[in-house]
Known about the structure:
CATH topology of the largest domain: Porin
Order of helices and strands: EEEEEEEEEEEEEEEEEEEEE
CATH class of the largest domain: Mainly Beta
Strand content: over 45%
Number of domains: 2
Oligomer: single chain
CATH architecture of the largest domain: Beta Barrel
Amino acid sequence: MNFQIPVEHMFSLRLEGLNEHRHEYAGPFGHRRLEKATGGTVSGSAMEGRVLELLATDYGRASPDGSIRAFNASITLQSRDGTVILMQYRGRASPRYGAGEARIQALFQAPEGPFGWFNGIQAIGYGREHGGATIFEIYALTGEAGAEGDDDTRAAAQRRAVPGEFIFRRKSEHTPGVKRHEITAPLGSRYFTLAEGGGKIMGPKVSGDYLSGFSWSPHRMKRDGDQLLMQYDVDTLLRAEDGSPILMSYTGVTSGRYPKGTWMTAALFETTAGAHDWLNEVQAIGYGRWAGDGAEYSVYALR
């Protein structure tokens, strides 16, 4: 059995033309693979609409042999009522997931109205190549507690859980009472988070530390009365017990959709060849919560 992560299916996203509009090169900073979609469709309980042509591009990277791909895409969705929504996603295609398969993490920026709730969720996606198009099944992480159990093998739109594998638990060390900085600016507010003392990671396959000064982020923030909306985009440097450096990059959301004092995240990793290089291939998710004076994350690799 696997750990079952509760989700809610949002929509199926079909991207057309990626394979026909691809540019690749190997430069001094690695192998780049750039693709654009010529259009596409959005279909599901959360939204019906289309992908706007020329406003959907992946500025991705790949391993030297091309076996691992790192997505870094921004695409523009338009609902049937004309609402325009920005969807930004990252992810992995790798041998772990098989030929033509991928896993992604996504955040949204949507205007107030029927799609405003998109801003308050961390989403993930399961991708596959089909008939010359790329199709992603997009799910919202519900924030409900998961548990060991049998995989949900129903059709994509009916699934209520996706399987994961526990990687580690991460606990940050914050200095009690230290002031956190906020910026209220014309282009939006920011909240500067910081783990002054770094922290620990503990898991069956990887344990170690994460380093002070290499774990902070200017979160995007909006206050509306008692409601707080935050979107995270964090880079954290971990050091495994064998000394291996591991870059953990994650996005996340705090919002009224998740229980107070908790949040949901999704993470990707980069590390050197060796005992932990399997992390390069995975898309992970994380449950975040306050635990004493620090933040604690339970991190799972998507199957």
